[in-house]
Amino acid sequence: MAMPMRRTLIALHRATCSSLKNAEASLDIRHPVPLYLPVRTKKRHFVPPAVGMKGRKDESKEGKGGKAGSVVSQPYIERPIHIACTAGIFDPYIPPEGDARLSTLSKEGLKQRTEQIRQSAASQLAIRKIKEYDSEFTTKNFAERAQEIFIEAHNSLTQFNKEKLHSLVTERCYPEMTRGNRYKTIRWSFVESLEPPRVVHARCPDMVSKGNLYGQVTVRMHSKQTLAIYDRFGRLMLGSEEQPKDVLEYLVIERHLVNPYGRWRLHGKIVPSWAPAKDPVIKTVMIPGPELKPGQEFDALNYKVPKPEAVQWNK
């Protein structure tokens, strides 16, 4: 009985719907635009609360870590900076005038010697502080070691060995040694030492913070060297490979004392004010000449070099 009754109800519902549609069509009834509402299609699952968390507030990770006894590190945007050397020479040594020329028996030589003894008090304090970090440091052995560093650094410069040169000189000294050496050939050699090298000055400055110590030791070196620089065309610019010269130099060797892996490296040179001027560099330049036709020879005797026009300039 249930099935026939259900079929009759469905048939009556269809008949009434069709009759209503026909009536709306005959009366010209228009319905408004249907309103569509956005419905959340993502399934939401119920997450039950943790046991014993009812009535408690949400705590941050830092708070939970502090209670647990662990420190949560904060993400820092700053980059770590390692300062391996200083930016210059602290309290530079002032060489006495006429060094390597005056004898200690003359009046002027005795005066210079007494002034050096007075100024050596600060150097002795610096040497004591250096020995606290470098137990093998002695003024006698260090002077010979500084001379070896100087020779190896210049040999690496002539061979253009950048990796080895970086390990022998500081970041301040490297651009000063390599600047302007492109397309040039350097021939350098250490002939002999005229006087044994000796330590004449020592300073132990700190930078950035109080305990960040750097050791700077000045070594006096009097030797014979040969230097010859050729340009990219193979022409001699400076010096000579056959004629050695007497050279008096004051080398500054530096080390980052706080760093256990630090090493002594060449940091710079001290050039005294009374030092003689350097020899001028001979440069190869091109003189503009006339435009020659194919097969035409240039007559250098009858050609006059044009003078450049006067140009105003300021400094």
End-to-end gap: 118 Å
Order of the strands making up the biggest sheet: 1-2-3-4
Rg is 43 Å
Q: What is the ordering of alpha helices and beta strands?
A: HHHHHHEEEE
How many distinct helices?
Answer: 6
Query: What overall geometry do the principal axes of the alpha carbons give?
Result: flat
Strand content: 15-25%
Mean of the pLDDT scores?
80
Largest sheet: 4 strands, antiparallel
Pairing-aware structural class of the strands and helices? alpha+beta
Instruction: Report helical residue fraction.
Output: 25-40%
How many E strands?
4
Which residues sit in consecutive blocks of at least 5 with pLDDT less than 50? none
Q: Main traits of this protein?
A:
315 residues; alpha+beta; four-stranded antiparallel β-sheet; 30% helix
In brief:
The protein is an alpha+beta fold. Helix content is 30%, strand content 20%. The N and C termini lie far apart (118 Å).
List the helices and strands and how they pair.
Elements lengths: L1 H26 L33 H8 L38 H27 L5 H21 L2 H7 L4 H6 L6 E19 L10 E17 L5 E21 L8 E5 L46
Antiparallel strand pairs: 1-2, 2-3, 3-4
Helix pairs in contact: 4-5
Structure description:
It is a single chain. The protein contains six helices and four strands. It is of the alpha+beta class and about 325 residues long. The protein has a four-stranded antiparallel sheet with strand order 1-2-3-4. Strand 2 (about 215-230) and strand 3 form a beta hairpin. The longest helix has 27 residues, at about 105-135. It is flat, with a radius of gyration of 43 Å.
